[in-house]
Amino acid sequence: MSSDYLRTYAQSADANALADAAPLTALQKKLIAQVDERGVAWAERAFKHDRDASFPTENFKDLKDMGFLGLCVPERLGGMGADYRTYMLVASRIGYYCGSTANTFNMHNANALWSADMIDKLDLTPEQRASHEHNRQVHYANMLSGKIYAQPFSEGSGAAAGRHPFGTMATRRDGGWVLNGKKIFASLAGSADYYGVLCTEDVDNASMANTMFMAVPATAPGLSITGDWDPLGMRGTVSRTLLFKDVHIADDAALMPRGIYAQAASRYPHMFMTLTPTYMGIAQAAYDFAVAYLRADMDGVGVKRRMYPTKQIAIAEMYVKLQQAWALFHRATSEFKLDPSRSERMRALATQYTVMDTAADIASAAVKVCGGQAMLKTFALERLFRDSRCGALMLPWTAEICLDRLGKGLLYNEGEPREEAS
Fold first, then answer.
1. 326 three-state secondary structure
2. DSSP assignment, residue 186?
3. 116 vs 82, 122, 141, CA distance in Å?
4. What is the largest CA-CA distance in the chain?
5. What are the backbone angles phi and psi of residue 222, rounded to the nearest 5°?
6. What is the distance between the terminal CA atoms of the chain, rounded to a whole angstrom?
7. What is the rounded distance in angstroms from the CA atom of residue 104 to the CA atom of residue 55?
């Protein structure tokens, strides 16, 4: 099915790309325009990758050719130097065309974002700063040469949610490190060149303060991929299981200095929102699909249905929800900073929850308002519907975790004791 209608409808997303009523910067406009040049092709390839549960390799080749594998690499080190908000805007537009591409592109860019300027503002020793500068130059050079970095989080425990240390262990040996453990739902499994692995240093009484962030080469002996991949949605992410058995890596594999991850996680909570734009893009795409379908602006739809009051009311309700999500998204993505206020932290959680929930609500409403024909696999909507259901499950900030932390954070001031429920 042709996705040409997106060439026109993508501009409707531009109307939402504002922050504090300020238009996009010149760089943001340029980058989004580059996405639009390739986006329709990504949307059309998405049918195949969804059907086959295959990784969108061609799309990542495009991203490489566009220079986007260095999107968040600082300019002084050869990258585009996109800041947090710019990345979030670009990722939302990629998600508009292909959710799986945006989802996995997030994994790659999080490795760059997390190791760039935000680290420089944390409390590091001079020795840590020097070693980190050396290490990130190694990794950024890899990215700029076209190497893809993944970022597997989950282990089937509460570690990814920050409840206890990661079970994957890093043991100091022979001037390097030896990793043992596993990661489940490891997006880009088999397609990444490096896996940015969160693990725990093997020391006595290890805690989350001993978390390490290490780039493991896909070719490292002892690293294997196992399991099938046949999920409801986000099928193109190919998120299989990684096993680490005595995997030796060098010192310069570190993406953050030793023990700094815990400081970053507590002082930069917005770093865990980088999946949000994927679902903001999906929400916009589902809404635009419904409008285009009811107006008969797409191939395969020969009858206009926009004249019926029930359709008009449904579209109006979808639009209101979409605007509410965009408003929160733009405010929260503009508040990325070191040590945000309590209200900014709460708003980040509220944004994550709202966008994930709204994407699913809008996609579901689009199915209802468009009717039976729109559920055929020749149209994008049924994939958008399935992809939208996955956002609320994404660690480290699932919908349940967001609500749990919001409830506690709003009812208890920092440092207040917490009573046990009777």
1. helix
2. E
3. 11, 11, 13
4. 73
5. 95, -10
6. 57
7. 9
CB-CB contact of 220 with 249 (8 Å) = yes
330 close to 311: Cβ distance less than 8 angstroms = no
d(CA 386, CA 402): 21
pTM of this prediction exceeds 0.85: yes
Tell me the two tokens of residue 184: 């489940």
CA distances from 315 to 258, 328, 357 (A): 51, 20, 17
**Lookup: tokens for 248:** 């030796």
**How many angstroms separate the Cα of 93 from the Cα of each of 90, 190, 306?**
5, 25, 26
Cβ atoms 41, 56 nearer than 8 A: no
Report which residue type is found at 257.
P
One pLDDT digit (tens) per residue for the chain, 422 residues: 678 888 887 866 666 655 554 578 999 999 999 999 999 999 999 999 999 999 999 999 999 999 999 999 999 999 999 999 999 999 999 999 999 999 999 999 999 999 999 999 999 999 999 999 999 999 999 999 999 999 998 998 887 777 889 999 999 999 899 999 999 999 999 999 999 999 999 999 999 999 999 999 999 999 999 999 999 999 999 999 999 999 999 999 999 999 899 999 999 999 999 999 999 999 999 999 999 999 999 999 999 999 999 999 999 999 999 999 999 999 999 999 999 999 999 999 999 999 999 999 999 999 999 998 999 999 999 999 999 999 999 999 999 999 999 999 999 988 888 888 77
What gap in Å lies between CA 166 and CA 206, rounded to an integer? 10
Q: 61-67 contacts: CB < 8 A, separation 24 or more?
A: 62/38, 63/101, 63/105, 64/146, 66/34, 66/38
**Contact between residue 363 and residue 282 where contact means Cβ atoms under 8 Å apart:** yes
What are the DSSP calls for 187-223, one per residue? TTTTT-SEEEEEEEE--TT--GGGEEEEEEETT-TTE
Q: Is 19 in a helix, a strand, or coil?
A: strand
Helix (H) or strand (E) segment spanning residue 247: strand 240-249
Contact 214, 152 (CB under 8 A): no
Dump the DSSP string for 89-104.
HHHHHHHHH-HHHHHH
Q: Residue 379 has what DSSP assignment?
A: S
CB atoms within 10 A of CB 363: 28
The candidate with the shortest Cα–Cα distance to 148, out of 55, 82, 286, 211, is 55
Dihedral, 259, 261, 263, 266 alpha carbons, nearest 10: -150
